[in-house]
Design a protein that fits this description.
The chain is of the alpha+beta class. It has 4 helices and 5 strands; from the N terminus they run E-E-E-E-E-H-H-H-H. Strands 1-2-3-4-5 form a 5-stranded antiparallel beta sheet, with no helix packed on it. A hairpin with a 2-residue loop joins strand 2 and strand 3.
């Protein structure tokens, strides 16, 4: 939730058990409460979280209050499924699932989402790239020049290789933070759209 941050050192999905939990609540960028617990367990039957050996620290200006407890139930806006890493699952998500996952992770303060963003924009950029490269290929094939089909074939392969290389370079820049995932995925299309336009004009003469 906004202004509430949850930290957990590790979570064992097989036993539904987490270790070293911290929940911090902020108001006006100031810490107002902090819950620390050694144990967090998911109750499958009741669909609630059980917290054990916990300390709640409440801050009100210069005053602080500590509450200790051995065990309590709590309601958290999170499920055990969300602790599972989806780092390698983004290709299996549909578009709406991918967008929703990115928004959830941003809300939770996750910064390293470049691979997910790249996959999001790749799904729209690739169909356009197929169209652009098809126009280039058709334009080259329609133009008769000295050297025959071999020259067209070599030029087409060279352009395709250049496109793939440019796309990979752009992805590296996006992952390193030098550019945005949107630019990384669409820059090759933009450049090759210009190339395709001039090749089309050349072939139409």
């Amino acid at each position: 939730e906004p202004n509430i941050y949850l930290y957990i050192e590790n979570y064992d999905g097989f036993n539904d058990l987490g270790r070293n939990l911290t929940i911090e609540k902020f108001e006006d960028n100031k810490l107002v409460s902090k819950l620390s617990s050694d144990m967090l367990r998911w109750n499958r039957e009741r669909k609630t979280w059980e917290i054990g050996d916990y300390v709640i620290r409440t801050i009100d200006g210069d005053k602080e209050r500590l509450i200790h407890g051995a065990k309590t139930d709590t309601v958290l806006n999170i499920t055990p499924e969300e602790f599972k890493s989806k780092h390698n699952d983004y290709e299996t998500m549909d578009h709406s699932e991918l967008v929703k996952y990115i928004e959830q992770q941003r809300l939770r303060g996750v910064d390293s989402l470049e691979e997910f963003e790249l996959e999001r924009y790749r799904r729209t950029a690739v169909p356009f790239s197929a169209f652009i490269l098809s126009v280039i290929g058709a334009s080259l094939a329609s133009r008769k020049v000295r050297g025959g089909i071999g020259l067209h074939l070599g030029l087409g392969i060279g352009l395709s290789f250049t496109y793939i290389m440019l796309q990979q370079i752009s992805k590296v820049f996006a992952i390193s933070g030098a550019t945005t995932p949107f630019i990384a995925m669409w820059l090759p299309n933009f450049l090759f759209a210009i190339v395709g336009f001039f090749i089309y004009k050349w072939a139409a003469r």
